[in-house]
Amino acid sequence: MIIKKGSILLLAASFLFFAPCMSQAATSNMTLSKTQYETLLQIIDKQDKTLTQLDLNLEVLQNTSTMQKKELIAANKDLEKSKEELKITKEKLSRAELSLEQADKMLQENEKSLKKLNEEIKVLKRHQRIKDIKNVCRGIFFGFAFHYFLSK
Questions:
Q1: CATH tag, 2-110
Q2: At 128, which helix (H) or strand (E)?
Q3: Dist CA 84 CA 93 (whole Å)
Q4: Which of 39, 40, 42, 53 is nearest to 10 (CA)?
Q5: Does residue 1 have a pLDDT over 50?
Q6: Most C-beta atoms within 10 A of its C-beta, which of 13, 21, 26, 94?
Q7: How far is CA 28 from CA 25, 37, 79, 89, in A?
Q8: How far is residue 99 CA from its own chain's centroid?
Q9: Which residues contact 86 (CB under 8 A, 6 or more apart)?
């Protein structure tokens, strides 16, 4: 009876954890920060350890207990289902890690490109300012020259 309650609690807890992930993944792309990713990885590791311990406990009970075989088989099926869901979540999380790495590389490349573009704009502004100053000087020079020739 304790196994059944434990497996039901584990199944309910895993459903609460996995259901939002599955519905989110099915409808849209998720964005994870590094801290969120690391937190999920820690949770998965903890659940993996719990599942391993429960698996060991079930094996011991199957060998030594007088409980009905049906309850043990049902608990074992629940455990296997939870293991499979955890495996799927690990795979999704590893894909998310690759996406984070790709996004990080893209952001670094964009940052380099923006810096280069910013420098080019500064150079162009300097050239335009010099050109404007030259035009003003030419205008003043031609204005004086025109005035000089008219006054003669």
A1: 1.20.58
A2: helix 69-151
A3: 14
A4: 53
A5: no
A6: 21
A7: 6, 17, 29, 16
A8: 6
A9: 14, 44, 47, 48, 51
Question: Which tens digit of pLDDT belongs to each residue from 3-28?
Answer: 444 555 454 455 445 544 444 444 45
Can you give the residue ranges of every domain in the chain? 2-110
Q: Average of pLDDT values for 29-36?
A: 74
Interval 105-143: pLDDT, tens: 888 888 888 889 889 888 888 989 999 999 999 999 999
- Contacts of residue 82, defined as CB under 8 A and 6 or more positions apart, other chains included, come to 10, 11, 14, 47, 51
Q: What is the 3-state secondary structure (H, E, C) of 59-82?
A: HHHHHHCCCCHHHHHHHHHHHHHH
Structure tokens belonging to residue 80: 């296997």
Measuring CA to CA, which residue among 77, 84, 72 is closest to residue 47? 84
Q: What is the DSSP letter of 28?
A: S
pLDDT tens, residue by residue, 37-77: 888 888 888 888 888 887 777 777 666 655 567 777 777 78
